[in-house]
Model the fold of this input.
Amino acid sequence: MGTIRVKLHELLNCLSGAQDLADPRLSNHHQQVAYLSYRFAEHLGLKNGEKNDIFSAALIHDVGALSKKERLELIEDEPVDVNSHGFRGAKLFKDFKPLKKASEIVRYHHVPWNGGEGQLFGGELVPFSIHIVHIADRVCAQIRPKRDILSQVSSIVGSIEQRNGTVFEPSLVEAFKELAKKEFIWFDLQSPLPMRRVEFEGNRMLHLGISDLLEFAHIISQIIDFRSGFTARHSAGVAKTAAEVARLMRFSKKDVKLIEIAGYLHDLGKLAIDNGIREKKGSLTESEFNEIKRHPYYTHVFLSAVKGLKKIDKWASFHHEKMNGDGYPFSAGGRDLPLGSRIVAVADVFTALTEMRPYSEGMDKENAVRALREMAASGALDAAVVDVLIKNIDHINEIRFASQQEAVIRYREFFKEEAQAAD
Ligand SMILES: [Fe+2]
Ligand SMILES: [Fe+2]
Ligand SMILES: [Fe+2]
Done:
């Protein structure tokens, strides 16, 4: 099987970059923290491996805060409960080998130094690097994006110094005072893409192959879907349905995997859309629908920024396009739609029709077949793809159902400990 190589950091940015787009006040928070954490690590003379882990952890440190509201609160102030979103973030990535160490940092990134007691949490030793991400996080949270950055420096330095030894580790406070003298660092932090301002030696090693990519895309799909019980299983159904249709249509083994990845990532852009609109019962207003229409556009913006994902980008980002050109947001017609995109579009519709949602049962087989046929006849969906799906509908539906059941179990598991803690 052919292979692909994708930079881990570019992928991580798809995830947190999309989340940070949800509100201007979040202004690239993850990229800023990753950039500044890296400058700390460099200043302290840490090894490449450690720098990489710190940079990766910082790029995803708040992704466990699934709602925009929670993320904005984290910018406003240090959370009362130091570990909830950190634990959630770590839980998502803990079994993913390339981020094993980074997930430990994510877990504890709000633990205060507390005169040295912050070397432990719950009796367990925490990595020293968490204190780097912690201080970088609190510095970046204070930056006001629209104000002259250099005029903000002295008050930021003062507020960090005030918490020297209590919240922040003393040698890091000293390091910060040195770093704060370098004006270029502040200019980098306020630039639109701070992450791009660090290119480092270790970058070479941070490539993912196809099976890691599949695992990673699966994790991202959970972050997209777990934000709401409404969609908690959607992407898994689309991914597995698309992969099976592609297999039946004689895609190569590699392309079957790539289309599964595209299925997991097709709604990536939804991370940038307000949850309130996504969960709304009843019909959407025109401007709410206009907002929803942005999501495949954002999927494209982020996936196209990752080198090596061209095919996946096209297959994922065109899932609301129609054969007759009436889809959104690219108004691409049949001629511009590769077979992979048409398959993901059919898999998306089929999954949406048949899956159970909190307020509705899924459609039964007869009605789903009728709806799919109508959409093929009207020029919305590709007739040949619809045909393959209908011919194999029982078998495909079983696969779809099983993958969604598994996603529901993961969803319950994910929130179980918190639900228990709240009881
Ligand atoms: Fe945080
Ligand atoms: Fe943060
Ligand atoms: Fe979508």
About this structure: The domain at 209-422 is CATH 1.10.3210.10 (Hypothetical protein af1432). Residues 29, 33, 61-62, 74, 137 surround fe (ii) ion (ligand 2) (CB under 6 Å). The mean pLDDT is 91. The chain has two domains: 6-206, 209-422.
